[in-house]
Amino acid sequence: MKPVKDQIEYLKKGCVEIIQEDELKTKLARSLKEKKPLRVKAGFDPTAPDIHLGHTVLLRKMKHFQDLGHDVIFLIGDFTGLIGDPSGRSATRPPMTREEINKNAETYKIQIFKILDRKKTIIDFNSRWLGKLTSFDIINLTAKYTVARILERDDFSNRLKNGKPISTHELLYPLMQAYDSVALEADVELGGTDQKFNLLVGRDIQRDFQQEPQVVMTMPLLEGLDGVEKMSKSLDNYVGITETPSEIFGKLMSISDPLMFRYYELLTDESLSKIEQWKKDASEARVNPKDLKSRLARSVVTDFWSDQEAEKALEEFERVFKNKELPSEIEEIVVKPGKIHLIDLMVSQNIFPSRGEAKRVIRQGGIYLNGQRVEDIGLELDLKKSTEFVLKVGKKKFYKIKRKS
Questions:
Q1: Rounded CA gap, 69 and 65, in Å?
Q2: Residue-wise pLDDT tens digits, 369-387
């Protein structure tokens, strides 16, 4: 293992807060002396089937601990997922079924190894111990924390002020997450900044169980492609790690320059000094930001696919967006001979969810047919006269409309 000073420097990259840093130094020093790796925990409730780049901020920090020789526990909250994490929520979340949670958990187990070392990763499920708690155990656990303290958290206090209900089971979530740390005897717990309250409860509960409190390390919430909101599938501002190399590459090339440097810090292992130098070089026009963005996109695609796939994605991007050529692969739509309104076609093929949405994009100039911008909302395609059309929607979606033979 590396000296404590070097480990701290490596682990602090991209980290928002360490509570407490001196405790982490002490734990690392003891780990070196006793040749016993730290137990580092991060929990993920399987509330959605896919992992996006926002989730990988935590996964990368877990990988950093692995690189330093520590034990990393990827904890799937299959029990707490039934409760629903109230962090950042303005209303009680509808409960998930056990079937939904199990299905999502299985996809997590596959996707995380795009970053984590399979041989060095411990996967656990908190139902293993939380499911065994008796009514007596749960009452004993709730007795260790006051309602007043739980209601201090912003999520709950805001809902109380606004007259929005808080279900009793939601109050149990921080305690159950805290008990995970007790069951695992965690030395360190990682989480997003929105998890800070829950992570700190873990420190308190560990003390009550006569354990040394875990060090809390919070990581920033990654902004989505819009650079404003947190990356989220529901906001459609995300990059899924199972998306195709071309999709990932294209999405990353669309982000702003300031967001690019943020992504470099949180999604790559580039040093902070190098990133700062690139910022300076870009501001002084010594380097083209597009070249840096391309480098970032290649790095991310390589992480989740391969260097060869990243090179192909780069070539595809340059062919379509630099050389204005068609993509090498285009989704085909086969239509019966005759006339059909373009809007009807796009809605029937689920390119747009409604006619109103299709009209809006046409008015904004986002639809092209055979390279020409579509301005006529009532445009008809005549599949008798022509056997093929190329439809472009936005900047990245292409479709080949073919007449059925």
A1: 7
A2: 887 888 888 888 877 766 7
CA–CA gap between residue 385 and residue 388 (Å, rounded): 9
Nearest CA to 313 out of 404, 223, 248 is that of: 248
Q: 136 Cβ partners below 8 Å, 6+ apart? A: none
Residue whose C-alpha is closest to residue 328's, from 341, 342, 337, 315: 315
The pLDDT, as a whole number, for residue 90 is 45
Are the CB atoms for 298 and 288 separated by under 8 Å?
no
Tell me the whole-structure pTM to 2 decimals.
Answer: 0.78
Q: Is 163 helix (H, G, I), strand (E, B) or coil?
A: coil
For residue 186, the one-letter residue type is: A
d(CA 106, CA 111): 9
In the chain, the domains with their CATH numbers are 4-219 (3.40.50.620), 245-322 (1.10.240.10), 331-403 (3.10.290.10)
Residue 109: predicted pLDDT: 81
Helix axes 307-317, 289-304, angle to 10 degrees: 140
